[in-house]
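To: structure desk
From: M.T.
Subject: fold request, one chain
Message: Could you run this one when you get a chance? Sequence is below, nothing fancy, just the single chain.
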Amino acid sequence: MAITIENPNIDKTISLDEFIEFSKQTVKENDDDSLLACADQLKMLSNNSEFISDYINEQLKDLANFQNKNAYGIQSTLLHFNDIFYIRINAWPSISEHKDVSIWQKDLYHHVRAHDHNFSFITVGCHGKGYKTDIWEYDYNKVIGYVGEKVDLTFLEHTSLPKGKVMFYRASKDIHTQIPPEDYSISLNIMKRGNSFLKKEQYHFDLHNKVITGTAPGFGTGRYFLIDLAKKIANAKTEEVLEQLALTHETPHVRAKSFEALWDLNKQDDFLSKALNDKSKIVQRYAERVFNATENSKISIL
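Reply: Done. Structure tokens follow.
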């Protein structure tokens, strides 16, 4: 399960630069144990009550370039990134008592949408009482990944992330929600990077019905936007490029999206037949849904 790392006696503080240097020397690609080795130092950094203020003060001096490489949303600020890991702070505002404000807050911050991550990370509460969270787990390797798919979910715990608490989340294993905190809260994360997790999707889940409701945004989901954009402004070469992706890309969801774009551009049974005979059930499932909605298709299944 998601691991709470007990280190109550650590009261030493370190600077952000010291934590970055330690992490550079410690974290190895595809090695969760090396990430876990940073837990005590992450707690030490969270003990430093001034480092976030100092960082923001420096960034405000060059506001035009602030976070220009940040791929995340409005509540995240990148402190450092390299090829192996990145460090960020997340802000967790409490939900407004005014109904019209709370509606857009919930939509903007996605607080309660259950999701997993395709990378491992450690988080620590830095400020405030912290968000509350329900944590579940599942077996990624037993999931196909289509919307509406039933998933075997196991409830693990209901907990929270107050200041000083350190937790480790397992890649493509732990599912969690982030329920709005009672007061403005901040968490600090160190998160794995690398191309390996681009091969796995992140999902949103309906915990009550135990089904997948969609793919969660993250590094790599921009590929789907590009495929959708391609079919809207296609030229003579677009279909050829999409077919190459549909037949050869290593990620099933990319192949499925490419087949979807091909079908929208040119409803040829040949495209649907190839999708039905793809090696992945993700692509097959997409094609079956199209096939069932298509009358009088003359499609052969190998």
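Reply (cont.): Confidence is low (pLDDT under 50) at residues 296-302. Let me know if you need anything else for the meeting.
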